[in-house]
Amino acid sequence: MAFCKFCGNEIPEGGVCSCPAAQAEAQGANAAAQVNNFAQDNNVYGQGANNQNGFNPNEMVEKAKKNPAILIGAVAGLIVLIILLCFIIAHTGASGAAKKYAKSITKKGKGKAYYSLTLPDDKIKELKDDEDWKDMIEDYNDDMADDLDDGVKLKLKSVKKGKKLNKKALKGAEKTWESAGADDPEAKKGFEYKIKVQVNDDGDKDTVTRKVCVVKFKGEGWKVIETSAESLEKKGEDKSSSSSYDDFDFDDDDYDLDDFDF
Q: For residue 31, what are the domain limits?
């Protein structure tokens, strides 16, 4: 009669104990053996399974047999890696830009994030050269702080990805971006997002939804245009180059929170 080397319980001849350590060892050995067989059949190692200079699956099998914790640790590491990749994907790209923008219009001290997302890089450079950049950020932060300290509370409820922008909408995005100060912008792709915010104004609660478009411009990355996909499509169809951004002088009044419909 055989006994488990991990827990000491009695096990039938040729069987495997049901304890976690024994099961992990059996699964690890089986998985490694399958990898080894596949590699040998396909000559993955180049010099056969006895290759002394490369990866040796037999050695991995032996280590797994002696210490199942190696396999358990590898699985745990894989899970952590998957979680990390999901986090990175969620906080980069179009969705990352949309969430960063949503925070910039609902929290204090996010003026730099707001302007960095809603203005072309060419315009930002121009503002910095004219020494207006820091003043704009400070004014935005001050206005946001005044409004939020005046009994208004904003709570971000959701940021949901909508439809992909079509060619007409991307054309409209290019027109809008050019009128905002970009030099020959090229919109690669984009999506419409719905941002839902709960507004609490001295006890009166209301939930508002704003549509914005997150567009990837060549050489700039993901930017936010504060309008709907439908509006951009109309701009794309329009033969003229006019836009609501034309002759925008970036006065403080242009960025009052009242413009956000909050």
A: 17-90
